[in-house]
Amino acid sequence: MMLTDTELHRYADVLFWGLETARKKKFNTNDIILIQYERPALKLAEILFKKILERGFNPIQRMVGTSGMEKTFYSLSNNKQLRFIPPGEKELFSHLHGRFFLRAPESLSHLKDVNPAKIGKALVVRKQLRDILDAREEKGLYGWTLCMLPTRELVQHARTTPARYTSQIIRACYLDRDNPVNEWESMYTQMQEIKRWLNSLKIEYLYIESDKIDLRVRFGEKRKWAGISGHNIPSFEIFFSPDWRGTEGTYYANLPSFRSGNYVEEIYLTFKKGSVVNMEAKTGAHFAYTQLTIDKGASKVGEFSLTDKRFSRIDRFMADTLFDENFGGAHGNCHIALGASYTTTYDGNPANLTKKIKEQLGFNDSALHWDLVNTEKKCVTAHLSDGRKVTLYDDGVFTY
Hints:
- This protein is of the alpha+beta class.
- The chain has twelve helices and 18 strands.
- The longest helix has 23 residues, at 116-138.
- The two termini are 38 Å apart.
């Protein structure tokens, strides 16, 4: 289940490629780079710490609280403790230039007995920190990337063996290649061509059809497709943030989802006038409903995404959204995210986006961002402003 030293160093190189690709402006000497990591990711954090220093940057390292700490916090915290933001946190985020986040969860279900409303309240309070980073990113002053490392908990919930799980990470991130960064550069170039084609189309709305999906998504004004930006390792998706007001129909997520310690399986959503009006789930329905009520934007769509199976080497459920939302397999995948939109899909300077303009354009705002993945065979048709219809995506492949 462990990655070798060679694979970890390759992973670190790919993560630096991701970080530098994700930020619009080049990094400068003495920039501040934060490494946030879960305990099993310590070895990779140490490798990144050294590489940050060697590049002339200032590293800050923070280990994320353990699953036991997190459960204790939500079990015992009162209202004031839930809303507490440590002194200096806003100042740090206001000066941060880059951030690595190394996921390696030791538990996926430790919060299943915690009141979801308490978790939601803490998310809403901490959204102000995310807003600071979003504003810095829009100005090109900040970039981020993240990855995932194998743990026993992930292996167990993915219902596989440690060797197979680790092998999937190695293949997905191209760590089995002598120079994985070259592989990512090549994919990046190919994806730029596909995005240029997509962005040349004057799309009014998309129609997504599969055995269990019948969904219409309004593209929105001043939008562009984004993806393969370095933000996630791995990432093979191309996505946009729609005008949430034009979402109509039904959506089905056949891949399970772990969120805030809860397992949700087979989610059915019905949208009317942009909002979820009915939600059903085979497992975890009550928790899923609480997520939709976190705030005003939680029941609306903030992202629509497609993954081309020709690029993704992920072909099994991994019990981790980072990998599952990039599923390749036999038919690729699409996913929607309930909640927050991405201003990186604004076709203009995101730094000029005020709250009022975002509202006018239908960019959704929420403390939630929950990716729900469908891997069925599907067809996605673009309805253009000149009345034409163009098939964008069919059976897991962009038609470009």
